[in-house]
Every structure is written in C-alpha cells, then in structure tokens.
Amino acid sequence: MTKVHQLTYGPFGENTYVIVDQENNALVIDPGMYYPEENARIFEYLNAQQLKPTRLILTHAHLDHVFGVNWFHTHHNLIPELHLAEKVVYDSAQAVAMQYGLSMEPLVFPKVRLVEGEVIVFGGATFKILFAPGHSPGSVCFYNEKEKYVISGDVLFQGSIGRTDLPGGDFDTLIRSIRTQLFTLPDDVVVYCGHGPITTIGQERTSNPFLHDYLASAT
What we know:
- The chain is an alpha/beta fold.
- The chain is built from seven helices and 14 strands.
- The strands form three sheets. Strands 1-2-3-4-5-6 form a six-stranded mixed β-sheet, covered by helices on one side. A six-stranded mixed β-sheet has the order 7-8-9-10-13-14. A two-stranded antiparallel ribbon has the order 11-12.
C-alpha cells in the first residue's frame, strides 16, 4: 500500500503530492514550492519522515506545478517527466512567470516519457497514465486502480473543473477528457486534485455544477 501526502505551496495554492511506499521511497508529483521558506519546509518534511525521493512526474507543466522541479533536481538529482504534448507549456513556464511578476530560473531539461495508457510502477503499486487534455494540451492523470485513487492535476476539482482560457486549453476537449477518462472510473475512486480538497468520482459525477448540464444533455 502507498500513502498519499498532500502538500500545498506557492502563490496559487497548488497541491504537491508525495506518494510513499513501504520502504519510504517517494514518488513526487507536481512540485509547487516557490518561496524559500517552502523549500525549507519540504526539506525538513522529507528528512523528518525519512523519505527518499526517487522519481518526479508532472500532470502538466503550468508554472505553479513546476516551481519546485529545480529544487528536486538539485537536492535529489531528479528529472521531471512529462507528456510530449506538454513540453511546449514546460518550455514557456519562465516567460509566463514573468507575466505574473514572478521570478523563475530556467528549468532543468525534462524527460518526455509519459505515454497514454502506459503504467508507472512504483514500489508495489501501479499508476496508469490517463491522457486528459483540455486544461493544457498534454495533461495527464495517474490512476492507482488497486488502491482506488487518481491524481487528477487540474483536470477535475471538488465542485469545479480546470480553467480552459490559457494557451492550449479548450473547454470541449476538457469535458471530453473528464467524461472518457475520469467518469469511466468507479464512484468510490478518490480524486486528489491539483488545487483544493480531495473528492470522489461519484461526488463529482452527481453534484459538480460545471458538469451537470453537459452530462444531462449527453444521456
């Protein structure tokens, strides 16, 4: 069994996930530490928990989800992994940060390694890569079928969905991704979102106001 640790960082309140196996190896997803004190906090957290980060993967590459990739590269020699369609977003993160008045050093070169339908093996767990564009062109989710949870990035939130007004976003594509990739999962699957609290597939299927009208018209 794995343990999922949700850590919230940065000026946009982004959720970073640290998934831990029984040997205290850590799979890091979307590191969002921006402020120096946040880097100090995660350093202390990893040491206190005696965790060993071994892999760094991204649901997508909007700047709030990649603020901390250089820190993990420097301190743990990890290279961020992403989907091919998301590399253009990753490459533009520094320029986008400047538009928000935020400073960001050039990011370490990523691995274009995440492929739709393939499986990430971590400890005794497996995570299926679900391709879910719409919020960004190469968004993916990571589904642990055995343990019944999915890391959704900014595709689906509690009572909301990812914004689609950023470059590469598209509302119809996002709705299709949610319908075909996430709403095909069982109702009791827990959703760990890129912002805000956790939810479940069933809760969002029945009560998400952004999806109710679409799903009603599609049935």
